[in-house]
Structure formats: C-alpha cells, structure tokens
Recover the amino acids of this structure.
C-alpha cells in the first residue's frame, strides 16, 4: 500500500491537485482512498459531485462506538474512496483532534484491511505543522510527502516549515519529502524561484502544473479535470504527475 501525504498552505490548490491525482490513479485501475485532513472538510468535494460528506467526527458524535465504515466512507468518481476527518465546532477544541480521531477510528474499523487500497492519500493543511496535522509525518501513516506550492513567499515559507518538520522525524524512519509540486500562479520567474527554494530545502520541483481555466471549468461542474475533461492537456499533466508519484515510490 502506497501511503502519501500532500501538504501545502491553505488556498494554494492542494485539494484540487490531490483530487486530480486520486482521479488519475483510479482511472489507471488502482484502488485509491483519499482522506481530507482539513476542518473545512472540502478535500473530496470534486470527487463526490460537490456534496458535503458526513465527517468522521460528525459520525462519531452521532453514532458513538456504533460508527461503521459506511457512515464515513463515500465512493466517489472513478471509484475513489472518500473520507473527511472533520473538526470541532468553531471556537471549541483543537482542529488537529479531528485528524487524530479519524485515524484512530479507521484503524479500529480495519478500513485498510477491508478496502485494501493500493494508494492512500492524506490531504493535509500545511499552515501549522503540529498536533494532528503532523500525524501523517510522525505517526507512520505516510511514507512519502509532497508539498504543493507556488513561487509566492508565504507558500514557500509554509513549504519550508513542512520540510523542517519532516526532517525532525527522519531518524525514526518516518515519512520523507519526495518533492515540491509547483501549482503555477504565473508570477515572474516562478519556476526559477521555486527551484532555488527547493534546493535550499534539499529537495526538488517534481512537476509544474500550468495555470488553466479548465480547472475552474471542471470545478463549476463539481468534477476533477481528470473526470470532466479526460482528454485535455491539463488532465494529461495530472496523469503524468500521478504516475511520477507511483514511480518515485518504487525507486
């Protein structure tokens, strides 16, 4: 089972990128599970026709110990298994607790053994790499970490923080950063800026995703680009990225 965590600053296009990677992997015949680790619970919306899923935390609040896998797992486009961790009510509690509770519940219910996913992708907010948001890094849940960024200062600052967090745990055999995914904002010299920053982080830019209106067109349909426009050039970029991630793991 390939276990991947995709991090990035809020608003950088991380969930859009993650969902398209999931769709691309699923379209190649793999069983994919995507776990949204953001209190907004919107990671998988373009895989489930824009629906709001019952989060793991909401299901636990409603069903308690009787919570079952069918309460928290939805089969989305192309067969992607979609889960949203959720978070506490606004102003109450720590958002990272939702991630911890979700991971614990999935293990308790033997989700990975029952569904046997080939790939598990954790979509994790990377503005604060502590508490539950660090679980995929330090808890042994993920093997590989990819960071979605642009060439903008705050996005690269967040990327550097994530790399630093992973570095602290490397001696324990936990996850490793496999590279940056440049989600272009079309700023001047963006690729060069990001490549320079990646070198300073002791990693590399593995893919540049071009800015394209077709991403918004797909989202207006509550779809991924891969599902809505599978023959488009943008879909080919996501498919190439997905294959690169699989190949990286096999090195």
């Amino acid at each position: 089972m390939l276990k991947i965590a995709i991090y990035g600053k809020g608003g950088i296009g991380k969930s859009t990128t993650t969902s398209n990677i999931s769709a691309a992997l699923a379209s190649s015949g793999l069983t994919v599970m995507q776990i949204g680790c953001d209190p907004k619970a919107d990671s998988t919306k373009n895989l489930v026709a824009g629906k709001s899923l019952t989060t793991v935390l909401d299901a636990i609040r409603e069903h308690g110990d009787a919570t079952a896998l069918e309460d928290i797992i939805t089969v989305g486009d192309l067969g992607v298994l979609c889960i949203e961790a959720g978070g506490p009510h606004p102003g109450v509690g720590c958002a990272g607790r939702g991630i911890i509770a979700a991971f614990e519940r999935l293990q308790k219910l033997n989700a990975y053994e029952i569904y046997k996913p080939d790939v598990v992708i954790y979509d994790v907010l990377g503005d604060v790499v502590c508490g539950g948001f660090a679980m995929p890094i330090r808890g042994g849940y993920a093997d590989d970490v990819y960071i979605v960024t642009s060439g903008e200062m705050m996005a690269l600052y967040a990327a550097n923080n994530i790399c630093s967090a992973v570095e602290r745990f490397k001696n324990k055999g936990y996850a490793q950063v496999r590279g940056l995914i440049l989600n272009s904002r079309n700023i001047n010299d963006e690729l060069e800026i990001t490549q320079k920053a990646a070198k300073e982080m002791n990693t590399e830019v593995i893919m540049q995703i071009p800015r394209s209106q077709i991403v918004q067109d797909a989202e207006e349909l509550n779809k991924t680009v891969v599902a809505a426009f599978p023959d488009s050039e943008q879909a080919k970029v996501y498919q190439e990225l997905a294959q690169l991630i699989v190949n990286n793991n096999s090195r």
Notes: The domain at 2-249 is CATH 3.40.50.300 (Rossmann fold).
